[in-house]
Fold this sequence. Notes:
The structure is a single chain. The protein is an alpha/beta fold. It folds into three domains: about 1-80, Cobalt-precorrin-4 Transmethylase, domain 1; about 90-195, Tetrapyrrole methylase, C-terminal domain (Methyltransferase, Cobalt-precorrin-4 Transmethylase, Domain 2, 2-Layer Sandwich), CATH 3.30.950.10; about 205-250. About 45% of the residues lie in helices and about 15% in strands. The radius of gyration is 24 Å and the shape is elongated. The mean pLDDT is about 90.
Amino acid sequence: MLRSVDRILCEDTRVTSRLLTQFGINRPLEPYHDHNADRVRPGVIEALRRGEILALVSDAGTPLLSDPGYKLVREAVAVGLPVTAAPGASAAVTALILSGLPPNNFFFGGFLPPRSGARRHVLERWRAIETTLIFYEGPTRLAASLADMADVLGDREAAIARELTKRHEEVRRGRLRQLVDDYAAAGVPRGELVIVVGPPNPNPGDIAEDLDARLLALLDRHSLRDAVALAVAATGLARRVVYERALALHGSGET
C-alpha cells in the first residue's frame, strides 16, 4: 500500500525512513505530529481534494490510538473524502490477549494524567465499570500510576506488558499491590508499557453463592473428585477451598 501513495505523513521521518528502507520503499516523507498538526492539516486536506493519495503512519502501534491523526480523519470524512485503514498491530489489544484477563469486553483509557490528583479523579470515574481496563503509561510514572490504581480501583488482578512484539517483550502478572512492590524493587523499566487491569473483584458472598451453584450442577453429573477438578479449572479458586465446599454439599445431601 505504501508503495502506491504520493506522500507519507509520519510522526518522525527518521523512524519511518528506517521502515521504508527495510522494504525498499522510496516515497516522500513529511512530519505530521501533535506539534504541527493544526498548521499542516489544511494543506493535507487540499492535497486530498486535488486527488493526491496520502498515507498516515505512526512510530509504533496503530495510528490514531493515542497517536496523531484523529482530527485529520474527521475533517477528511466531513468533506466527503475517502479514508481507509490497513489493520496492524495494536499494543492495547496485544496486551489484553497476553494478560490472561477477561477480553469479552474492555475499556481503553489511553494515557492517564501525569499528576496523581488528576489521575485519581479519572480512575474514580471508571472504578465501577465492570470490565477490563487498558491504559498506556510511560516508564517513569508506572509505579505511581499502579499505586493510584490500587488505592482507587482496589487490589485487582492486573498485567504489565512491556516492549510488545519486540525483542525484549515482557509481561508481568499479579495483583496491583504486588506489581507496585515488584516495580519498586526492580526500578524504572525500559520501553513502552501497557497496563491491563481486571474487572472489579466480586463480593466474597457472590463468590460463595456462585461456587455452590456450580458445584451442585457438577455433583449432579460427576463424581466428587471430577466435580472439584472441573470447578477449580472454571473458577481458578484454590482446590482446598473448592474441595471443602463440595464435601459439605455432598455430605449434606444437597445434590
